Amino acid sequence: MVLSSVLGFPRIGANREVKKAVEAYWGGKISADELTKVAAEVKKYNWTNIKAKGVDLIPSGEFSLYDHVLDHSASFNAIPKRYLGHGLSALDMYFAMGRGRQADGVDVPACEMKKWFDSNYHFVVPELSDETDFKLNFNKAVEEYNEAKALGIETRPVVLGPISYLVLGKPAREAKPGFQPISLLPKLLPVYKQLLTELKAAGATSVQIDEPILVLDQAAYLEKQYSSAYTELSQVAPKIILTTYFGRLDSNLQFAAKLPVAGLHIDLDRAPGQLDDTLAAVKPTPLILSLGVVSGRNIWKTDFQAAIKLGQKAIDTLGGDRVIIATSSSLLHTPVTLASENKLSAEQKDWFSFALEKASEVAVIASVLSGSQDAQVASLLEENKKSIGARRSFETNSNDAVRRRVSAVTPDMLNRKSPFAVRMEVQKKHLDLPKFPTTTIGSFPQTKEIRTARAKLNKGEISQAEYDKFIEKEIESVVRFQEKVGLDLLVHGEPERNDMVQYFGEQLEGFVFTQNGWVQSYGSRYVRPPIIVSDVSRPTPMTVRWSAYAQSVTKKPMKGMLTGPVTILNWSFPRADVSRELQAKQLALALRDEVVDLEKAGISAIQVDEPAIREGLPLRRSDWDAYLTWAVDSFRLATAGVSDALQTHSHFCYSDFGDIFPSIQRLDADVISIEASKSDMKLLQTFKEYGYSNEIGPGVYDIHSPRVPGEQEIKDRIAAMLEILPDHLLFINPDCGLKTRGWKETETSLANLVAAARWARQQYA
């Protein structure tokens, strides 16, 4: 019999219950016990509904109130010293690590966040050193296994593997030079052995241990560590299913298939070509092979016939008792369910499959491969065939004008009229900014009043004219604040925008949108990714009205704000029938028109954000060049159609640039702003190493935390930056947009930022 498996499930709740409860706890509106009750209800919903779909192997232990990697750090006592000794409860210390804390005499910044491989999910980076005292503070895997068992549901616990955990970590501040976190493996393994021993004693018969770094090149150098670790763990653990996802094993397959584990999971959604090599490697072993044939990263309905073909190939080689049909990865990256989507057309809804629907898909595919004669299974198989056929028919419809325009792109369209050195002098005269110009990354706080007005418009309770008048007042208020606090290059604050990707998708042809298609980005920050369903074009200007209005109420220069083509692509659910390159080029041409129109409307600087350009980088280095070529070309295509006087900006966050720095240079943005404060400004060393000739604004404070930076703290950061960067190239700005922050903290933080910039002008005159 072929079993079915789900590797993980969204932990946000069908109606975002976790977000609401966590933020209520932070605001002192509910107790820790009340928060725990909400979490318990969401876990119950997940387990019972996955079971109801007929899935055999149901995940537990992967639920989180903030981040699953942070859960492991808290569980393993990998807690940086700065969070200790403040009298915080375990829960408050956990949240302080995730988002910082500035209350009741405690003032600590958050830990660094990074993107989870090539997704838009952010994890909290473990900080490790020889002083890290690993011990099991609590056994979350056992607690949730028992919690599900009490409900009558048998689950397969999920644990992040020890080697991936260490490799994803970073040296703590107190670590000795040259320290590598993987050196702590001998200290960490006893804690994992205790965790797994207790799990086995609780009755778990198998455990999913995630080792996603096995799809990275660097894992090739860790064969000995994998062998020693899993030799030890397999002696005390339930049956281990070693789980990989997001890419292909490549040469790492040769040692992974020899590890003393019960099974191996591979991602056939992102890397279907690895099946043959994996079957050949696994066949002589007793390993079970788990096939990730249902996408954990996209929302398109699974083609049952294609998935069954892959499954049957594995069964023919290994036998049905050695094959599991599974999601490709955790379903964390997909919305919870289609059931609450009432505004999609029947045709559109038939294209998609969210987490609960994907759970049903793995169960149906496994049933078919097990030889089921059930009439309902046969009916579902036939329905899927019709759905896939209808979608394929729709995909044959293309917008010839859009396709022709992409085909007509020439190399000259990717280049500004003059090199940066020339443009810089023109822009200095045109913008007349002071030394160390201050600006923000774009958005200002999205207040309750803004959200209420948007909701009233959507419900028809106010007219478009009334809403527009409200937005004008909000923009003017933001402009007046910036003038008052003393910022140099202003923004309009983006009160009209619901999300930096969704807002543009709603105004472009080729997208559809959900009502409740929420996906976790980090902590309590959820997004609703738009879905690209057909060729993309811009029917009318998207932002010109609001940026032009903002410029009309001030004499200071105004910066237009756009989201870049690669980020719109990476933060949407893309089409699966055409290349990402084609989709990015279509988006770039739409944005090119917007950039040109903004300049015509009197806007002197335009920021085209590309925070996702690094996250979209393929996981294997051999695949980088092709991606970076079209990704950088797409940005240049979007921004190169303007005069030398127009200052182009771009923003990047939570990215390691060292390995792609030549591509960052090739973007040829006049100014780039980067996250720097949360990563201890280590990114700046890359700029020093390579030499960066254009202007740059490293973030001087972390906006993902409610903590307010002091003026001296910002002065210290500026001084540190100027040890690395030429003073004539430095902009001063926060790490990221201010949308999620409150006004009180925003006002104080920006006042401190401006004061520090004024100090710098005097100090470095």
From TrEMBL:
MF (Gene Ontology): 5-methyltetrahydropteroyltriglutamate-homocysteine S-methyltransferase activity; zinc ion binding
Location of the Cobalamin-independent methionine synthase MetE C-terminal/archaeal domain: 436-758
Pathway: Amino-acid biosynthesis; L-methionine biosynthesis via de novo pathway; L-methionine from L-homocysteine (MetE route): step 1/1
Superkingdom of origin organism: Eukaryota
Family annotation (Pfam families): Meth_synt_1, Meth_synt_2
Residues of the Cobalamin-independent methionine synthase MetE N-terminal domain: 4-311
Keywords, sorted A to Z: Amino-acid biosynthesis, Metal-binding, Methionine biosynthesis, Methyltransferase, Transferase, Zinc
Cofactor note: Binds 2 Zn(2+) ions per subunit.
InterPro entries: Cbl-indep_Met_Synth_N, Cobalamin-indep_Met_synthase, Met_Synth_C/arc, UROD/MetE-like_sf
E.C. number: 2.1.1.14
Cofactor list: Zn(2+)
One GO biological process term: methylation
Residues where L-homocysteine binds: 441-443, 609
Annotated Zn(2+) binding sites: 651, 653, 675, 736
Residues noted as binding L-methionine in the record, renumbered to the chain: 441-443, 494, 609
The keyword Methyltransferase belongs to this UniProt entry's keyword annotation: yes
Sequence similarity: Belongs to the vitamin-B12 independent methionine synthase family.
Name of the molecule in the record: 5-methyltetrahydropteroyltriglutamate--homocysteine S-methyltransferase
Organism: Heliocybe sulcata
